[in-house]
Amino acid sequence: MGAIVVDVMLKPEILDPQGQAVAGALPRLGFEGITDVRQGKRFVLTVEGEVTDAHLAQARQAAETLLSNPVIEDVVAVHALDDSEVSAAAGAPA
Amino acid sequence: MGAIVVDVMLKPEILDPQGQAVAGALPRLGFEGITDVRQGKRFVLTVEGEVTDAHLAQARQAAETLLSNPVIEDVVAVHALDDSEVSAAAGAPA
User: Fold this and answer.
1) Distance from CA of A15 to the nearest CA of B (A)
2) Which of A2, A22, A40, B78 is the most exposed place for a label (fewest CB within 10 A)?
3) What pLDDT sits at residue A94?
4) Chain B closest CA to A16's CA: distance in Å?
């Protein structure tokens, strides 16, 4: 089973209150040196068999039409999940 | 300015209603061949200057303590955002 990752982030000019809340909490918890946080979405699409170019094209189209709101969000990446990521996702944290 | 990406996904055994809703909508919109969808979170942390190992260690710790709920979520990746991704995030969709 292959998997495709679609990353969606708010456009840079769109306010991100969730990210700001995280950025505000980090110094209170002792994390210094992180100046900004933006929060987005990550989709993992499972496909039958190996990931083909057709699957990727379909994922790209789904990303633009269903997985993101093009008014406020950008699809920043659509790529096949490599094996190291699959094992990380299934087991130990990175 | 460097940036670090933290990817957080629900653990495989945790029900993901958002992902299921997307998976249910895909065939109705004509996307076939995608058998499952899981939705997670993607954080982009901006740091001052270049991304160092210290920044990554801090991001990893923040990922485990603030950005994810370890009861239901896994931190699947913590890595520096490379330049190609930065330009993609700033401009054209991938």
Assistant:
1) 14
2) A2
3) 40
4) 11
Determine, yes or no, domain membership for A8: yes
Single-letter amino acid, residue B33: G
The residue segments making up the domain with residue B39 are 2-90
Region A77-92: mean pLDDT is 67
Residue A85 lies in a domain: yes
- How far is B33 from A49, CA to CA, in rounded Å? 9
Edge-to-edge strand order for the sheet containing A34-47? A73-80, A2-10, A34-47, B34-47, B2-10, B73-80
Residue B91 has pLDDT above 90, yes or no: no
Number of domains making up chain B: 1
pLDDT band at residue B54, thresholds of 50, 70 and 90?
very high
Return the CATH number at B62: 3.30.1280.10
The structure tokens 């980090």 sit at: A26
Query: Testing the interface with A: which of B7, B14, B69 to mutate, by most A Cβ within 10 A?
Result: B7
Identify whether A21 is part of a domain: no
pLDDT of B90 higher than 60: no
Query: Is residue A73 in some structural domain?
Result: yes
CB within 8 Å: B77 and A59: no
Residue B43: per-residue pLDDT: 97
Record the tokens describing residue A52, joined without a space: 């083909």
